[in-house]
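User: I've been going back and forth on whether these two constructs are worth ordering. Before I decide, could you fold them both?

Assistant: Sure. I'll take them in the order you sent them. The first construct and its structure tokens:
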Amino acid sequence: MSFVNQISDSDVYIRPHSGIILPQYEVHVNTELLKKLRENFLASAVYEPKELEVYSMVTKLVKADDKRQIHIIDKSTKVIEKTFHSGHTKSIKRLDIWEGKGSMIILSCSSDSNVRTFDFESAKFLKELSGHRGRVNCIGISHDLDIKSAMVVSGGEDATVRVFYLGSGRQRLCLIGHEHPIMGVSFTDPKHSVGGHELIASIDQTGEIGLGVKQSGVCKRILS
């Protein structure tokens, strides 16, 4: 959440857990742009968000442990307010949080090939998002405030990027084009687009970056 740089016509900035910002005109791909994009995306991708601040509730932390449990913690007192088992059968790789109209949902992805969602207040299990073969390395959430339109993006060891509806858990898209495990994914900020399209950005283990169209799943380009 700390990327506050001004956007210029040759810069792209990635904000961890908030998507990526792209200028509202065609991005000019050059060596400096790719370097900056890759550095910022990798900074997000290698971050270990097994401890995640809830930004609308600044005193709360959401944390996963090695026993596949998820804890909600009061940041100021360090008191664990709630603990629940994620239901994952292998280690949790990432956490994220969707904040919508009157509700909040915790998301977790795991080496067991699945993404799972939970109600923040009750800790009730909601949905399992399945489709990947092998571990799911990363997740991202769209900026939609309505759960009916909110989407989850995930990247896996199987080199695919998959998009699911948050509410139903149904898979909407499967983006291919990468040849190596995906390490970071994000939706573009809806205030910005490239060629009129909102995009899904992904980065794989080799640093290759993919840009796909959110609405159709068509791969716009792979930046190597």
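The second construct, handled the same way:
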Amino acid sequence: MNKSIKILLKWIVGPLLACWLFYSLYQQVKAQPDIDTSIALIREMPFGVMAWKFWLVIGFVFVNWGLEARKWQLLMRPLHALRRLGCISCVPLIRSMSGCSDNGRWLVTASFGRKNVTGVYTDAGHVFIY
């Protein structure tokens, strides 16, 4: 792609798509029936009678991130030594950049310091890094 097309996409098409997306989401939320009841339920959830379920799920999220960070630390060891805190900070990035392909494999691209890593998860639980 030449430079003028990249500028056009980055500064014109991208913001227009974002505005359309936000407007579409706004319209969908506005059209929801009983939106006030749903918002009240969401606000009550962390402090209500069943708050322990909410906090249990939040705790499991952090446990999952710790396990994912340890996995990436072990997988990256042959390429680059990583600190645990650096791996933990990359887990949300890995989660947000992952996408599922048609054949059941997950493609993940992440940046650890100066290293860019791409890995493929297979159904069998193997991870191939290239």
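Notes on the second construct follow. The chain has two domains: 1-31, 32-129. The chain has a mean pLDDT of 76.
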